[in-house]
Specification:
single chain, alpha/beta, D-Maltodextrin-Binding Protein, domain 2, Alpha-Beta Plaits, 3 domains, five-stranded mixed beta sheet, binds phosphoribosyl ATP, binds zinc ion
């Protein structure tokens, strides 16, 4: 029987998040075996643990059918693979930064200067787009210390909270690309594996759809139902059930979590009572 092979990061920022998406899809993965490959016992899928930089190559060469990798690594690798789904995890950006005390007016600041990066391909493409001629110094790891050492005028690196730049006396001046983890795959996957892939994608969709969503239940006087529906824009067609108490109903719907906090006071003022907000594990659209 066919089994899918998915490559995920062995250790690092993407490891836990990738495993938890698979686990939320109901896939059982043995814990911490330290092995290069783990076999799921309840879904025909094997998990390969690799360095993230190697994942596009393994998928391109069909050693793995699927992979989870950051767009930054994928685009820098320039490997021909299919981008199947954005996963909404490991969000970050590839940015240019310079020492914070150096004045900065425009991209042309970098003309004739040296920029240190682990992303030479993407940086070159971006500079070309703006017709800026700069020298690219390719280095791996600890790019942020380079300007302090006087080895480059600026850096192009991954930023998330910005605290690494800040603690190295740097400021972010240009955004090169936004990135998040994506599911990648190969073309011309064999028929039996394609069926498995569709099952997996269906589950991933259900997991991703539920993210940031909550199920809300509240009690309301019947004459306030319309007002309450107006307050929560997500509540297009809520379920309305009569309560044992005459003139009252229970209203159920799915809402965005952030919407809830914005509207809680209004809901209470409009007459909602006994408000319950509960997590949703999976959502099939
Ligand atoms: O060993 P392996 O090669 O597999 O891992 P790695 O060290 O190359 O990658 P890892 O685990 O650091 O990151 C994996 C992926 O997570 C990256 O390719 C990005 O897609 C994504 N990601 C999300 C990040 C960050 N956020 C991030 N903050 N990757 C790196 N960083 C680093 C960045 O390089 C800088 O040093 O964190 C620092 C900046 O963070 P802030 O929060 O201080 O701005
Ligand atoms: Zn890496």
């Amino acid at each position: 029987m066919s089994r899918l092979k998915i490559a995920i990061q062995k250790s690092g920022r993407l490891n836990e998040a990738s495993l938890s998406i698979l686990r939320e899809c109901g896939i059982i993965i043995p814990n911490g075996t330290g092995k290069l490959i783990a076999e799921s016992s309840n879904f025909p899928i094997d998990i390969l643990f690799l360095r993230d930089d190697d994942i596009p190559q393994y998928v391109h060469q069909k050693v793995a059918d699927l992979g989870i990798v950051g767009e930054n690594v994928l685009f820098e690798s320039r490997k021909q693979v299919l981008m199947l789904k954005k996963l909404g995890i490991a969000k970050c950006r590839l940015s240019l930064a310079i020492p914070k005390d150096i004045p900065y007016n425009s991209i042309h600041f970098f003309s004739g200067k040296t920029i240190a990066t682990s992303y030479p391909f993407m940086l070159r493409a971006w500079l070309d787009q703006y017709k800026v001629e700069a020298q690219i110094e390719e280095i791996s790891g600890s790019v942020e210390i380079v300007p302090g050492l006087g080895l480059a005028a600026g850096i192009c690196d991954i930023v998330s909270s910005g605290s690494t730049l800040f603690s190295n006396g740097l400021k972010e001046v240009e955004l090169v690309m936004k990135s998040e983890a994506v599911l990648i795959g190969t073309e011309n996957i064999e028929a039996a594996k394609k069926t498995l892939l569709q099952q997996l994608l269906f589950r991933i969709d259900a997991v991703l759809s539920a993210k940031g969503k909550k199920y809300i239940l509240l009690n309301t006087p019947n004459d306030k139902i319309d007002a309450i529906i107006q307050i929560l824009p997500g509540m297009k067609s809520p379920t309305i059930l009569p309560l044992a108490e005459k003139g009252w109903s229970s209203l159920h719907s799915v809402i965005d979590e952030d919407q809830f906090w914005d509207h809680i006071d209004e809901l209470k003022k409009a007459g909602a009572e006994g408000i319950l907000v509960v997590p949703i594990e999976k959502m099939i659209q």
